Amino acid sequence: MPVNGLPPYNSQNIFARILRGEIPARKIYEDEFAFAFHDINPQAPTHVLVIPKGAYCSFADFSATATEAEITGFIRAVGKIARDLGLEAPGYRLLANTGEHSGQEVAHFHIHLFAGRPLGRMIPG
Ligand code: 5GP
Description:
Elements: H1 14-19, E1 27-30, E2 34-38, E3 46-52, H2 59-65, H3 68-84, E4 93-95, E5 111-115
Antiparallel strand pairs: 1-2, 2-3, 3-5, 4-5
The structure holds guanosine-5'-monophosphate (5GP).
Guanosine-5'-monophosphate is lined by residues 14, 23, 25, 37-41, 49, 97, 103-106.
């Protein structure tokens, strides 16, 4: 159950459907805890989405209610994906939109991984 009065997880969200194989995605990586695929509307030369396999609405939900194994497995997967893509030397940016002010569109926790060029300021304007 999500924290802080957030709405319950909706299993029809687009990433849940990708996890179930109901919608295609360009998969990069998968293990017990994480699934990674290319963003459909990339904002950088490399724009990967990494999502946990579990049903968590947001970072708030995941960080408060996921098991230690899920958190560890997921975070290690994000690092491995970046490493395997050869991004450690040039560098990359991780971003997790959470809730209304962030503009989070898909209510299944996800980390954006951006890379492939200098990424500029963290927050425009
Ligand atoms: P948010 O704004 O929730 O942090 O990011 C949602 C991301 O999901 C956006 O970057 C958007 O382009 C991506 N996205 C939305 N629908 C799909 C889809 O069906 N497939 C893929 N691969 N990415 C999607």
